[in-house]
Design goal:
218 residues; mainly alpha; globular
């Protein structure tokens, strides 16, 4: 008796997939722009790394895995791809989890060492930010393990908001109008808090508003 084999059809790409694809390409491009100024660090010399030289490997791992979390996380929100292959969705989810774990732990090391060269407030801000990032991601993972997929999706959104906040805050701190307000240590602290706290607050308002709507027939 012959075994029946299931042949999966190729991914049915259509016009509706253009927007998710463009979003992913945009995030890829922004991540490259954000990480490009760090290219001199690859020289791995004391002159290029400055205060980061003693923790240079943590810095490189933080930047590399941070870029990986940006790219892998964006794929998870492509509904068609997620429904097409749950196995692929799960595999990319593990990649995202690992990338966030590595990047956030390295961020905590950097925030507890080299960041204090700028200011205590700057270091503390990064410590809180990285802690919120890793905890939100772990909760998203734990909800998936418990098969509470609605909560998993909500916490995954929160996690990715915090991930993207690194880009938003980083670009904002480089704007000339922001640089005129003070030194990097002075300007970056409020920008870093605003970068993840405000988007999370807005998301909670939107989420609560959708829950407040009455279901038809009730």
């Amino acid at each position: 008796m012959q075994k029946s084999t299931t042949i999966r059809k190729p991914f049915p790409f259509s016009l509706t997939d253009i927007i998710p694809l463009l979003i992913w390409i945009s995030i890829f491009f922004m991540a490259w722009l954000f990480m490009h100024p760090a290219d001199p660090y690859l020289a791995m010399t004391r002159e290029a790394l400055g205060r980061y030289f003693p923790v240079r490997w943590f810095l490189i791992a933080h930047i590399t895995s941070g870029g990986g979390s940006l790219l892998s996380g964006a794929i998870q929100f492509w509904p068609k791809l997620r429904n097409y292959s749950p196995l692929l969705h799960r595999a990319v989810g593990y990649i995202y989890l690992l990338a966030v774990l590595v990047s956030s732990i390295c961020a905590l090391v950097l925030a507890s060492t080299a960041a204090y060269a700028l200011s205590w407030a700057y270091a503390f801000t990064l410590q809180v930010w990285a802690s919120v990032w890793i905890s939100a991601t772990f909760i998203a993972f734990w909800m998936a393990v418990r098969k509470q997929f609605k909560l998993h999706k909500e916490w995954m959104i929160r996690s990715y908001i915090i991930t993207v906040a690194f880009l938003v805050s980083g670009f904002a701190s480089r704007l000339p109008v922001m640089q005129q307000l003070g030194s990097f240590a002075e300007v970056s602290v409020p920008l870093f808090w605003m970068g993840w706290a405000v988007p999370l607050y807005v998301y909670e308002i939107i989420r609560s508003s959708s829950f407040g709507k009455k279901k038809p027939g009730r």
